[in-house]
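> Could you send the Two-component response regulator ARR9 prediction when you get a chance?

Sure thing. Input:
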Amino acid sequence: MGMAAESQFHVLAVDDSLCDRKLIERLLQKSSCQVTTVESGSKALEFLGLRQGLQSNDPNELSTSPHIHQEVEVNLIITDYCMPGMTGYDLLKKVKESSAFKNIPVVIMSSENVPARISRCLEEGAEEFFLKPVRLADLNKLKPHMMKTKLKNQKLEEIEEASKDETALVEPEIKDSTKIEILPLQQDLQLVQQEEQTLCTNNKRKSMEEGISTDRALTRFDGITTTV
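Output:
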């Protein structure tokens, strides 16, 4: 696996031929691209963080690795069609079936000009189909596809940041509304306490007045009158 110095776009190149991998790497670097090269479709899936058939009996099923090898963003995948084990067409399908990587543009290369093969790849979602040997002029066609992917990713990041900001703004509003609901309850409690104090004061005053009038009144017990 080879990796060039950091640049604007990052391309994952897949080819079982070392000679072809070196050629495509050199051409992409001339186009100011960062390049990662792997020798098979399974290695490409491993680099992306997709593991094939490791957690089930179905060898065609993909699962996402908890340790995704996504230290750098992949803006485009260019792959040979004829490879042992997993063909470029199979790799294309796996990428497009993945919710995490389906937006990455995929370009197919082949040394054989087979119209049915080309049509099948384009229908499955390939952006381009190049005949080998690939030329620099061919790779210059890839920049619009890579730019589209980068813009999409930037837009998703902006949406995520805006969502975080909205969440941060909502929290103080919830706290303020809680205070607004508590204040009337405190005021009602104070009013009730004041009313209870007033009622208690009135009762004491009334009791004192009744006590005084009772002491001064004449009380009769079986014809006996007692005065104080």
